[in-house]
Amino acid sequence: GSSLLTGPEGLMAKERENLKRLKCLRRYRQRYGVEALLHRQLKERRMLATDGAAQQAHTTRSSQRCLAFVDDVRCSNPSLPMTRHCLMHICQDTNQTLFKPCQGSEEVPCNKPVPVSLSEEPCCPLHLRLPPQMYVPEQVLAVSEELGAAPTDLYLSAAELQPTESLPLEFSD
């Protein structure tokens, strides 16, 4: 920064003072000597501790499997975050409140877990009941022979559509 401020005539006293302040501000938070060494060692220890903890948490988290048993065989799917069951068996957890089993229909029972929504009976997409149709299309009226042969005197010709008065220039096309 100082090379930009120096010119053929040099720096004025006010500019020298501002340059001195700028250099002090740039060095204000830098650590020197023993303080810099201790700070760097602390940062290295923190990095090792957080990297190790994150890596350990990742391996612990990835090794967690669903606790449900199907035909005396443990489920091999990974569990959902903060739970002990996978998505297929989440309804077996009595403490969870985010999923309910689908009620299905009388013909086809279904126990697929679905997220609880604003409706009282949440359903999977297969058993979703659509609301009744709101729009009823209008019935097409049959065109009778009488309407098809309308008299031509009801329509105006192109000459009759032309204006009879002359308009000022500002209103004309």
Record the SSE blueprint.
Layout lengths: L1 H4 L7 H15 L5 H31 L5 E2 L2 E2 L24 E3 L11 E3 L29 H4 L9 H4 L12
Antiparallel strand pairs: 1-2, 3-4
Residues in β-strands, percent:
5-15%
Please give the largest β-sheet: 2 strands, antiparallel
Q: Structural class, from secondary structure content?
A: mainly alpha
Q: What does the average pLDDT come to?
A: 77
Q: Total strand count, please?
A: 4
- State the order of secondary-structure elements, H for helix, E for strand: HHHEEEEHH
Share of helical residues: 25-40%
Low-confidence stretches: none
Helix run count: 5
Radius of gyration of CA atoms, rounded to a whole number: 41 Å
InterPro entries: NSL2, Znf_KANL2-like
Subunit structure: Component of the NSL complex at least composed of KAT8/MOF, KANSL1, KANSL2, KANSL3, MCRS1, PHF20, OGT1/OGT, WDR5 and HCFC1.
Domain KANL2-like probable zinc-finger: 72-127
Protein name: KAT8 regulatory NSL complex subunit 2
Describe what you observe in this structure:
Residues 72-127 form the KANL2-like probable zinc-finger domain. One of its GO terms (biological process) is chromatin organization. It is found in: Mitochondrion; Nucleus. This protein has 173 residues and is mainly alpha-helical. Among the domains are: 14-50, no CATH class; 56-87, no CATH class; 97-128, no CATH class. It contains five helices and four strands. The protein has helices at 2-5, 13-27, 33-63, 145-148, 158-161; strands at residues 69-70, 73-74, 99-101, 113-115. Strands 1-2 form a two-stranded antiparallel sheet. Strands 3-4 form a two-stranded antiparallel ribbon. Strand 1 (69-70) and strand 2 (73-74) form a beta hairpin. The model has no long low-confidence stretch (mean pLDDT 77).
